[in-house]
Every structure is written in structure tokens, then in C-alpha cells.
Design a protein that fits this description.
458 residues; mainly beta; Jelly Rolls; 5-stranded mixed sheet; 5-stranded antiparallel sheet; 22% strand; rod-shaped
């Protein structure tokens, strides 16, 4: 290897240009060697550059050296960077290493009576992600801040979670719980809006009554759409923001209520209400049971519908089951409808998420109230429709709401249950004019509930 030792290289012509090597050549600076610019160690001919001290992250008070840049870690506590005794052209830089200056400020203190920006006092760097470069100009102004970045350029983290059945839709992950479980968040985003999740919580639907009986109310329906998860939400969007943290969120999925029983010769029973579904601070109430008919003096008196997320329908003009019980905003459901106290005894339909149960007449049982349609799962689906009411003799059964509530029974067919994991109310039982047929007299069960959580994951 050849070696040339000189103290100075100058161009041949006065004020000319001296070229060092050719394009593609590599010049190696040995370890420990310093390249200076006008006496300051600040880079190879680059005015105002600093050598960043990547091997020495600062976590406590220190004194800076001219020509160096520092990474200050204030995540544990605040501390001070003392500036060196400045002479014209000196330069010092510092950056918020852990993005914690806003919590624990870095105090920058001039040497002796020297100044920062014309003031003989310390400066507090207290902005998240802040980076600063100071150049010493003269004794009048002292250290001048020539570069101040308050932008926090960091890689973007996203929510990471497990639990339920996981699917994807665009940039969103969707966790579907059809039974109890845990939505377990192991990582949150460093962008707060990404931690706000979309959710839908549907309770179990109420069971339908027996003997010319009413439809069960739908399970309560609650939904909230976050700004970072695009999809078409239901009209009931707005149940309240939920931003997740790195912890486990127990999930409760309510069961559907049982249909009212019947056994010959004329033993009538009562349906049961649906059960609640829960995610975080959101509880959707189970649907109210549909009413079972009775004859005063011979059987239990006719009953009204039971309240719930949506209320159950009633018989014989008894009080209807009220919906949105307990009350929330937006409403989680609607009331059932009343029956008719006439020859054919039509029974009312159960309430649904977006509409009350339909009224019965002397020819048809009340239809179940309409449910709510949302695309939170990735495709538009209806949830929480009320169960249809039935009746006596020539009554035509009422249809279940939004095709997820169960249909009322007829002489030729039993009542149908609310759709599983859609929160529909169960259909009410029929009462034929002749020959008891228990299969068409009993009420049908409500559909079980569901919980869906959706968030941005990429």
C-alpha cells in the first residue's frame, strides 16, 4: 500500500478546484480520526453538521461537547444538558430519544454567564419528540437555536389482539364471539384513534308464549363505529366510544330465552327472557318474553309482554312489554304490540331493534318488529328482529322481524325460533279450534346473541 504524507494540498491555479479521486472511489476514515471544519469536529466539510453519539444514550445530567449530537432518554426522570463554553461556530444538537420530553423535560443550561438566544438562563425542552440544534454566534446572543423540530416521526403501531373467530376486511380485523370468551389485547397503537374499536353487542332474544300467544322481544342491540374502521353501520350507531388498553376484556354472549311449554290437557307455561350480552362498559339487555294466553277462572290470567332490550308482545289487550329497558341512548330496542280480545284472539308481535312489534288483528298475528342491519362483520346482516305473534282458529301467524325473529305458529306448522347469534325473538304458539296438537301450541325459543369487535390492524 502506497502512502503520501503532506501537510496541505492546494489547487495548481489560484482559487482553483482540487478533485479528490474519481466517481465510485471510496475513502476510508480510520477509527479515532477526526475531520474538522474550521477547527470544529463536525463532519467532512459539512458546515453545521454534528457527529451523533449513538453509542452513548444520555440518561442523566451531562456536559455536551461542541460538534456532537446526543440522544436524551428522559423516560425515567428529567435531567440537564450543560452546554460547553461557547466560541463562534460551535454547534451542539440533542433529540428526544424516547419521546418523553413532554413528561420529563430536558433542561439545557449555558456555561457560566453565556446566553441562549440572548438570555442568560436555561431552556426547558418539553415537547414530545423534540430535536434542537444550537450554534454559538457571539457573546451578545450566545447559543442560537437554528433548527427546532417538534414533529414526532415514529413507526405506526396497531392493535394486536386474540379471541373469538378472527377474520379480516380490508385494513380491519374482526373478532366475532358467538359464545363467552375474552378479547385479549396484547398491544395497542401509538396513535390514539387507532385504539378506538368498533363494536356490536346483541343480547339473546326472548322466547315466544304458548296458546294463541305473542312473539318474544328481540335482544337489545347496541353498536358504535370508530372513525378508523370504514363500513356501513346501522341507524343505531353511537352507543359510546371504547378505546382498548393492553388487557383482557371478558365477553358475555346472552342465550336466547326458552319458548313457553304446553302439555295436554291444557297445562300452559311461561316463556323466559333472553340473557344479556356484555363487552367492556356496554351491556345489551335480553329480550322480554312473549305473553302466554290464559282464561280467568280456569287458567292463569292472560299476561302482558315482558320488558327487555325489546319488549315481548301481549295477548288479549294486556299491557305490552316495553323496550329499551333499562333505557340507553341510542335506544337498544322497542316495545312489543298488544293482542286482540275478540273471537280469534290474535296475539301481538315482539319488539325489534328499530321498530315496535306489529299489531294483531282478528285475521293475523302481529309481526315482529324490524331489526337493525349493519356491515360490521364485513357484509350487511340483520340482527335483533322481534318474534311473530300467533292466535286462535283462523289466525294467520305473524312473521318474524327482518327474517331473524321467529315466525308465529299456525294450525299446520309450529312456531320457529329466533335465528341463533342474531338475537331474534321466538315466535308465539298457536291454539287450534279442535284436536290439541302440542307441537303447534308451544312457543319457540329466542335466538342467542353475539358480540363483534372491529379495529384497524394495518
Amino acid at each position: 500500500m502506497s502512502e503520501i504524507k503532506v501537510n496541505k494540498i492546494s489547487p495548481r491555479a489560484a482559487c482553483g478546484t482540487t478533485q479528490l479521486g474519481d466517481s465510485g472511489d471510496t475513502f476510508t476514515i480510520p477509527a479515532g480520526a477526526t475531520i474538522t471544519n474550521n477547527g470544529t469536529a463536525n463532519g467532512f466539510g459539512a458546515t453545521g453538521a454534528v457527529n451523533w453519539q449513538t453509542g452513548s444514550i444520555k440518561t442523566s445530567t451531562f456536559t455536551a461537547a461542541s460538534g456532537e449530537g446526543y440522544f436524551a432518554d428522559t423516560s425515567s426522570s428529567a435531567f440537564t444538558m450543560n452546554l460547553p463554553a461557547g466560541t463562534a461556530g460551535n454547534i451542539v444538537s440533542v433529540v428526544d430519544y424516547t419521546n418523553t420530553f413532554q413528561n420529563n423535560a430536558l433542561t439545557i443550561t449555558p456555561n457560566g454567564s453565556q446566553k441562549i438566544g440572548g438570555v442568560a438562563a436555561s431552556f426547558a425542552a418539553n415537547t414530545e419528540g423534540q430535536s434542537l440544534t444550537f450554534v454559538y454566534v457571539d457573546d451578545t446572543e450566545g447559543w442560537k437555536n437554528v433548527q427546532d423540530s417538534t414533529s414526532n416521526a415514529t413507526g405506526q403501531l396497531f392493535v394486536t389482539a386474540t379471541g373469538g373467530t378472527i377474520t379480516t376486511c380490508g385494513n380491519c380485523k374482526i373478532h366475532t364471539f358467538t359464545g363467552p370468551g375474552t378479547f385479549c389485547v396484547s398491544q395497542i397503537s401509538n396513535i390514539p384513534t387507532n385504539n378506538q374499536v368498533s363494536y356490536m353487542v346483541v343480547a339473546g332474544g326472548g322466547g315466544g308464549g304458548s296458546v294463541r300467544a305473542a312473539g318474544g322481544g328481540a335482544g337489545g342491540f347496541r353498536e358504535d363505529k370508530s372513525p378508523t374502521t370504514p363500513y356501513t353501520a346501522s341507524p343505531l350507531d353511537g352507543a359510546g366510544d371504547i378505546s382498548v388498553t393492553a388487557t383482557g376484556f371478558p365477553i358475555t354472549v346472552g342465550a336466547g330465552g326458552s319458548g313457553a311449554p304446553f302439555s295436554p290437557p291444557d297445562n300452559r307455561g311461561l316463556a323466559t327472557a333472553g340473557s344479556n350480552s356484555v363487552f367492556s362498559t356496554i351491556t345489551s339487555t335480553g329480550g322480554g318474553r312473549g305473553a302466554t294466553d290464559g282464561t280467568p277462572g280456569a287458567f292463569p290470567a292472560p299476561e302482558g309482554g315482558q320488558p327487555g332490550g325489546s319488549g315481548g308482545g301481549s295477548v288479549d289487550a294486556q299491557p305490552v312489554g316495553t323496550g329499551n329497558t333499562p333505557p340507553v341512548n341510542p335506544s337498544q330496542g322497542n316495545s312489543g304490540s298488544s293482542g286482540t280480545n275478540t273471537t280469534n284472539y290474535g296475539a301481538g308481535g315482539g319488539g325489534g331493534a328499530t321498530a315496535a312489534g306489529g299489531a294483531s288483528s282478528t285475521s293475523v298475528g302481529g309481526a315482529g318488529g324490524a331489526g337493525a342491519t349493519t356491515s360490521i362483520s364485513g357484509s350487511p346482516l340483520a340482527y335483533a328482529g322481534g318474534g311473530g305473534g300467533s292466535g286462535f282458529q283462523c289466525i294467520t301467524a305473524g312473521a318474524g322481524g327482518s327474517s331473524v325473529g321467529g315466525n308465529g305458529a299456525t294450525a299446520g306448522g309450529a312456531a320457529t325460533a329466533g335465528t341463533a347469534n342474531r338475537g331474534g325473538g321466538g315466535g308465539g304458539g298457536f291454539y287450534p279450534n279442535s284436536s290439541l296438537n302440542p307441537s303447534v301450541i308451544v312457543g319457540a325459543a329466542g335466538g342467542s346473541g353475539i358480540v363483534i369487535i372491529r379495529y384497524k390492524y394495518q
